[in-house]
Design goal:
The chain is an alpha/beta fold. It is built from 16 helices and 16 strands. The strands form 4 sheets. The protein has a 6-stranded parallel β-sheet. β13, α11 (304-313) and β14 (315-323) form a beta-alpha-beta unit.
Length: 452
Amino acid sequence: MSDKNVLLINPWIYDFAAYDMWSKPLGLLYIGGLLRANGYKISLINCLDRYNPELLVYQNLITPKSTEYDCGKFHKEIIEKPQILKDVQRKYGRYGLPIHIFRNELKKVPKPDIILVTSGMTYWYPGVFDVISEVKGYFGDIPVILGGTYATLCYDHAIEHSKADYVICGEGEVKALKLVQELIGGNISFIPQNLDDYPYPAYDLLTSKNSLAILTSRGCPMGCTYCASSIVAGKFRQRDPIKVVDEIEFYYKAFRTKNFAFYDDALLLKPDEHITVILKEIIDRKINCNFHTPNAMHASQINESLAKLMFNAGFKTIRISLETSNITRQKAIGNKVTPEILREAIINLKKVGYKGRDIGVYVLICLPGQPLEEMMESVRYVHECGALTKLAVYSPIPQTKEWDKAVKYFGFDLNADPLLHNDSIYPLRLNDITIDDIQKVKALALELNKEI
């Protein structure tokens, strides 16, 4: 065992809106697990911990206000908007621990020899920067390594502005391990060769394990023009399905975890070799949990047999993707589904016991060049299929194919501040779609969803 201490930090979210749907710093905790396997001592400060004891006292609560499946609102404090967002008529907030509680957390952890900070959406970087500023102010000249989604997609911006000493892009576990060893010493005795080699994420560091995230694969082979999965997670690989269920069963027994959210971007691909095996094992082992798919599943794979297994295994939150009912645009952005395929998937889900209110379908709006009527028609189509519409507002993601279209269509600056990637403000930049138009789409979805 090394005498070196590594501090892991999951930063605040700075945004106009944020909600905890099984949000876990999975990549950071995978790094923590690998560091621990190599003898380092690790500790965690999770700024998005709704179960933090000091936060609950501050809120005058015994336990966070949560849904049946352990989702809920983050604590929010209104803060000043960045200058570039001044014209947005919405309140900007820091989501997560109040800053005085974060500072108290810094006092509780062992003095670190190195600090690892993760990052989420590109436009959440102000929370990342404030965390880095805080730890440098408190601990002084201790190396800070930054990784995660923002660091990967906006690497040059992070290098120039974050004040992190080192920035890692892409999959970070092995890179972080080697960099930590180089900077503070220690012996690397174990380097994983594939996904099944990785130690479990360091979930024991979380305050609550009522819900946890599971990753059965990384990447996605579909190549959708708006998605950065292959950039952030690399090529598509799937884990051994038996080992996936071993992991779920371990948390179920050790932590009594009741809710599991699959973080996969392509959970259902190669179903006979993967998800079908997982579901049958869950049923055979009598793992009585709730399973959720916030990242959406591919409708093309949902036949009646698979739907029945999902229902019997305890899949509760069903999310599938349509993006748009327009065939021409579907082919242009990925060609992974058609309206007919979606309808058939919903029919199969309902045959085995799911209700329309159990099935959410993501509809992507505000794509470059997408007319209002197409958005409205997509919402109507989902309703006709008997499911709920879940609107996803497009935001430009650097390095994706749709990013190039956004640059051309909207004159988007390649070097624009990542704050302008925010889907909460992006409709303001559209040339032919107004905020009122977007509200019409949202109102239609709300009205039709009530009928479901």
